[in-house]
Amino acid sequence: MNQRHKDEPDINLFRAIEVFMAVAEMRQVTAAASALRITQSAASQHLKNLETIFGLPLIDRSTRPIALTYAGETLQRHGFRLLNLIDDLKRDMQHLGASSLPALRVGLLASIATTLTPGLYELVCKEMKVPELMLSAGLATDHFAALNDRRIDMAVTSEKLQEGPGYTFIPILEEPFYLVLPEGYTGPADDIHDIARRLSLARFGTSTPVGRRTDQHLQRCRLDLPRAIEADRTSMVMAGVITGKCFAILSPTLLIDGVAEGMRLRIEPLPFAPLKRTLHLVCRRDDLGAIPARIARESQAILKRAFDHHFPAISHQVSYHEITYPSH
User: Do 165 and 287 share a structural domain?
Assistant: First the structure.
C-alpha cells in the first residue's frame, strides 16, 4: 500500500473537492474548469480521483446538463462545510502575523448577552488587541454542543452539563431565584398556594436547563402549580408576568434584560425552599493562558454593576467567586 509521507499536506483532495463543488454548481465540467482557470482534462481528472477515493460515482454523465448521484449530493452537502472551514482557516492564518489570537469565540447565555457584550468588546478588542470577537447567544445546552463541535472557545453559562479532562470551569457567581409578580399585584407574597389561586405560572419549558432545574425544585417541594405559559426565552416568560395574570420564578441574570428595557415587576423572596444556581465560564481549550480568567472576571464585574443598578434591594444576595489567573 502506497502511504503518503506524514508531513506531506493532502492539498490535492481539497482542490478536487473545490473542483467538484464548482461542477456541482454549474452542472458542466467545461464551465467549472474555466471558472477555476484549469483545463477541462485537469477538472475531469480531479473528479475521477474523487470517485476513486470514495469508490462511488459522483456524477451521472449520461444526462445533459450532468446530474449528481446520491453520493455526489452527499459530498456536496459536506463540501460546503469543508470549504467554509478552509476559508476560516485562511482568514485566521492571515491574522497570525498581527496577533497570536486571530479571534475569540464566546458563547453567552441569551439573558445576559446584551448586558455583557459592550464590556467584553472593550476588553477583548481594545485591551487584549484580539482582532475579532465572535459572540453567540443561547442556552447552556447550545454552549456545550458548540464547545464539542469546536465552534466556540468558551462560554459564560449556567448548568454544568458535562465534566471531563477537556473542560475547565471557572465559577463566576451564585444567584438565588425569586418570586416575580406583576407590579400591581396586591395579594400576599408569602403563601405560594394563595398566589397560585390568583395567578398562573409562566415558566421555562423542560427542554431548557433552567426549566428542568425549576421543575425539579418544585417537585422536591411537592408543589403542583397551575401553568399558563411555557417558553424557552426569558423575555416571553416576563411578558406573561406583565400581563398581570401570571407569576414566574427567576434569578437576577434572567431578569436583567427585561428590567433594563423597562419591564416593571415586583420581586419577592421565594415563599418556599430557596433555589440557587451558579454561573461559570467553561472553556474547552487549555492553550488560552489567562484569557478565560480575564473574561470571567470582566463578566463578573459587569454583572455586579448591573445588579447594583437595577436590583439595589437584592443585589447583595448574589455571591461572587474569587477568580484567580492561572500560574505558569
Answer: yes
34 shares its domain with 80? yes
Do 153 and 104 meet the contact criterion of CB atoms below 8 Å apart?
yes
Collect the ranges in the chain with pLDDT lower than 50.
1-2, 5-10, 95-99, 328
Residue 249's SS3 state is strand
Pairing type for strands 67-68 and 132-138 reads: unpaired
Q: Which helix (H) or strand (E) holds 110?
A: helix 110-121
What does pTM read for this prediction? 0.68
Give 174's DSSP letter: E
Q: Give me 281's grid cell.
A: 465560564
Contact criterion met (CB below 8 Å) for 134 and 106: yes
Instruction: Determine contact, residues 295/120, Cβ cutoff 8 Å.
Output: yes
Identity of the amino acid at 192: I
Are residues 108 and 231 located together in one domain of the fold? no
For 308, how many CA atoms within 13 A lie in the half-sphere containing its CB?
8
Q: Are residues 91 and 165 in the same domain?
A: no
Q: Are 157 and 107 in contact (CB under 8 A)?
A: yes
Q: What is the CATH number of the domain that holds 154?
A: 3.40.190.10
Rounded Cα distance between 209 and 236, Å, is 16
* Pair 91, 234 in one domain: no
C-alpha cell of residue 8: 506531506
Between CA 216 and CA 182 the distance in angstroms is 24
